[in-house]
Write a structure and sequence with these properties.
Elements: H1 6-10, H2 12-20, H3 24-46, H4 52-73, H5 78-98, H6 106-124, H7 129-137, H8 148-177, H9 181-190, H10 193-208
Helix pairs in contact: 2-10, 3-4, 3-9, 4-5, 6-8, 8-9, 8-10
Length: 230
């Protein structure tokens, strides 16, 4: 029975965008960063009592808490809110422990490095993370891996996610070692949600580029016993 109905071919595109989440979470992640940099810079310039990094850390935690409250009231997932607040708190603790404001960004730097490696390894071992994320969200378990075309599409699209982490590292690392706190804050804002938005927008076209005409898309993987080699 054919699964190449025109509506099935075109419908996965918005569904994939929804599954990957869009820009909302990435925008939220920049708010505590902006709060940290602004409070840190203001404390240093205006001579507020205490260390500027303490002011920046306090502002970041308060901003993360405020974002969390807004998300919860909007129906966001509590686990995502807790993880977001925890990440900011850990970053603040690191900066307070070292007394170096640039170390507020150290956790994010390490996170980008680990993420780039994890996504790249997942592609090489033929378990692309994009396929795992989408397949889990759709309740497909590993059925998508038995479709060689869909597997190849997820591999192609996953490289876009690897690239975004590499781009961030290429920009962040020189600024981190130069102790350029304000520039790090600006770079974090500029290279967070725009890059995520680009990856989300490119994911479906990259997946689709590997699918033959008439393929049912991400919702209808073709069951085959063994994936073809890349």
């Amino acid at each position: 029975m054919s699964i190449g109905h025109p509506q099935q071919v075109t419908s996965p595109e918005p569904s994939l965008t929804e599954l990957l989440g869009g820009r909302g979470g990435a925008v939220d992640a920049t708010v505590p960063v902006a709060a940290f940099v602004l409070a840190w810079a203001a404390a240093g310039a205006l001579g507020w009592p205490g260390q500027p990094v303490v002011w920046g850390g306090g502002a970041a935690v308060l901003a993360a808490g405020a974002v969390g409250v807004v998300r919860l009231r909007a129906g966001g997932r509590p686990r995502a809110v807790v993880f977001g607040l925890l990440g900011v708190t850990v970053a603040v603790i690191v900066a307070l422990a070292t007394g170096r404001a640039a170390d507020f960004f150290l956790v994010r730097l390490l996170g980008n490095a680990v993420s780039a490696l994890a996504w790249a390894v997942s592609i090489v071992v033929r378990w692309p993370l994009l396929g795992l994320i989408v397949g889990t969200a759709l309740g497909q378990q590993a059925r998508w891996r038995r479709d060689p075309d869909l597997l190849r599409g997820y591999q192609r699209a996953s490289w876009a996610w690897v690239l975004q982490y590499v781009v961030r590292l290429a920009v962040f690392l020189p600024l981190y070692f130069a102790d350029a706190v304000v520039a790090l804050g600006i770079a974090q804002t500029v290279l967070t949600w725009p890059l995520v938005a680009v990856c989300v927008a490119l994911s479906w076209p990259l997946v689709r580029s590997a699918l033959p005409a008439g393929h049912g898309g991400i919702r209808h993987p073709a069951e085959r016993s063994r994936p073809r080699p890349e």
